[in-house]
Amino acid sequence: MFELTPDEWTAIALSLRIAIVATFVSLPFGLAAAWVLARKDFWGKALLDGIIHLPLVLPPVVTGYLLLIWFGRRGPIGSFLEQTTGIVFSFRWTGAVLACGVMGFPLLVRAIRLSFEAIDKRLQDAASTLGANGFWVFLTVTLPLALPGVIAGMVLCFAKALGEFGATITFVSNIPGETRTISAAIYTLTQVPGGDAAAMRLVVVAIVLALAALVVSEYFARRAGMRYHGE
Amino acid sequence: MASDGLSVDVEKRLGAFSLSIRFDTTGGATALFGTSGAGKTSLVNMIAGLVKPDRGRITLGETLLFDSKKRVNVPAHRRRIGYVFQEGRLFPHLSVARNLDYGRWMNGLKGDSAERDRVVTLLNIGHLLDRRPGHLSGGERQRVAIGRSLLIQPRLLLLDEPLASLDRARKGEILPYLVRLRDEAHVPIVYVSHNPEEIRQLASEVVRIEQGRVAGIGGLEQLDAAPAG
Q1: How far is CA A143 from the centre of its chain?
Q2: Domain membership flag for residue A113
Q3: Does the residue B189 lie in any domain?
Q4: Which residues pair with residue B192 across a beta bridge?
Q5: pTM of structure
Q6: Which residues of B touch chain A, with CB atoms under 8 Å apart?
Q7: Domain range holding A89?
Q8: Residues A30-54: tens digit of each pLDDT
Q9: CATH of the domain at B26
Q10: How far is A143 from chain B (nearest CA, A)?
Q11: Torsion-angle region of residue A27: left (phi > 0), alpha (psi -120 to 50) or beta?
Q12: B229 domain-assigned
């Protein structure tokens, strides 16, 4: 029997919402960072690259703790944002979005940067001789040609966000309906007697979602790739 | 005619290679002739605004495009200079029709279907409009590239070895179009080539370039002064 309880549905819906929002909110920043890293040379580039990649190599609990210190209600950035925009991160689903976005960011930037670097710069030159300024070159040539890589990066970011556990639970805890994602729910279930069956159900859901994300991205990347090679 | 003339006086250091070139054209079809590696493409890139000279001055008719003393450097996208590259450089993600219309959108030109039809007919590319560049032969690709740069209503057309990537038969296929272009398009042309045969058919003025310097300026007799390319 495979029937999900309302609590499990809540965790699944929450996970999806957090992962989707985290991916799309990260995207503009990821595009900007990838473009700068791929096309510009400046002092401190290696440092920026390192900072972006840090969440990939740091223990997630460290990232989560740093987010708590900076973006918590009494943290310097957190209190500033609360006063100016009313956005609160700590112990909210928005905080989970932030944690997941930060953890997925290096994967997003990496994939997009590689696809930017793979684009023939001569096509961009051709566009500028035809009258396109930098912004239009990016929008009409660079971005469409990089689309397969952008999609791949988004899927990686989405998958990372969907599975994120350490940074999220450290930063925003494990509150049912607010920050208890699939991962947190599975963890919770494994800590209580008799939770194995429910944990197993969520494990199956996690596998299905991850596979679906891969299939969808493969489809779009293939379609985008075909358009350019005219097959 | 003088108002169409191109006047170039530039210097540029590229690694161990240095380029120092000065010439004026009267506005018809001018050939830049020289072996590969002589610096022709770098020179054309400077005229187009893709490469910045270290020093010098470039004017087209009355328009100042580059002047290192006055710190003028009109960016490529505002020079309105059509550039046909050796490899075509069509946008692979756009159909032929959209490639042709790209420059018109970017320059905010009004849709002029008569002008577009004229160019499409001149180059005989009407049957290709719905295709993607990946489906075109080398010769077709170059014709579309020529059409694309003509449709920005250029003040000057740069053709950098447009036939070099084609085999002999294809070259024969494109050359007549270039001759028609010269006679019908009323745009000054700078034609870069290492091939005297091509130049004989197209140009009357020849600027011979060797190792980053102007080795001679004149008529077609310049073609005989150099080792055959």
Answers
A1: 19
A2: yes
A3: yes
A4: B32, B160
A5: 0.84
A6: 48-50, 75-83, 85, 87, 89, 91-93, 102-103, 106-107, 131-135, 148-149, 152
A7: 6-229
A8: 999 999 999 888 999 999 999 999 9
A9: 3.40.50.300
A10: 11
A11: alpha
A12: no
